[in-house]
């Protein structure tokens, strides 16, 4: 009986091995990932969302360890952990969803003018915040930042 030895083709010369099964190749502005010799995913070299998604997916499917990704791509361990967490909690769409942004500013110019008028009349900052339906903490931060100025209380003179 004769035993045949079969050698699997190796990735091309310009490839970087991530593990013994996974390689990555950059060519013409595209990044291609190879599992054994099969291309499994391609994205533009500046597409960070796709990079994070595919590396998190490789980890979640036990193709790589987090440190393999860190060593091969020069990213930080925490960035890998965050990408894996996002993948586990939100799936692929979590990498392509619009970013959550803060709501509209509460202290608009009109609100600041109204607040300053009330403060100038000698009202207490907490009362002004309540009247204008603004969180007291937000209001006090505006005073500390110098966006609003509270009147100093006049001391009554005793005779």
Biggest sheet, strands in spatial order? 1-2-3-4
Oligomer: single chain
Mean residue pLDDT: 86
Major sheet attributes: 4 strands, antiparallel
Number of helices: 6
Coarse morphology:
rod-shaped
Helix content: 25-40%
How many domain modules? 2
Computed CA radius of gyration, to the nearest angstrom: 29 Å
Number of strands: 4
- Separation of the first and last Cα atoms: 121 Å
Order of helices and strands: EEEEHHHHHH
Strand content: 5-15%
Uncertain ranges: 4-9
The structure class reads alpha+beta
Structure description:
The chain has helices spanning 48-60, 66-73, 77-90, 109-120, 125-131, 136-144, and strands at residues 15-17, 22-27, 30-35, 38-44. The chain is α+β, with helices and mostly antiparallel strands. The protein has a 4-stranded antiparallel β-sheet with strand order 1-2-3-4, with helices on one face. Strand 3 and strand 4 (38-44) form a beta hairpin. It is rod-shaped. Residues 4-9 have low confidence and may be disordered.
């Amino acid at each position: 009986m004769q035993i045949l030895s079969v050698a699997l083709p190796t990735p091309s010369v310009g490839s970087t091995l991530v593990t013994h099964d996974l390689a990555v190749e950059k060519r013409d502005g595209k990044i291609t990932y190879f599992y054994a010799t099969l291309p499994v995913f391609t994205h533009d070299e500046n597409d960070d969302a796709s990079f994070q998604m595919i590396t998190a997916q490789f980890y979640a499917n036990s193709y790589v360890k987090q440190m393999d990704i860190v060593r091969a791509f020069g990213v930080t361990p925490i960035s890998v952990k965050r990408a894996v967490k996002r993948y586990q909690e939100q799936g692929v769409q979590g990498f392509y969803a619009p970013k959550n942004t803060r709501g509209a500013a509460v202290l608009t110019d009109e609100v600041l003018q109204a607040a300053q008028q009330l403060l100038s009349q000698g009202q207490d900052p907490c009362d002004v915040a309540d009247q204008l339906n603004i969180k007291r903490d937000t209001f006090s931060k505006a005073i500390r930042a110098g966006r609003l100025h509270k009147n100093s209380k006049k001391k009554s003179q005793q005779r």
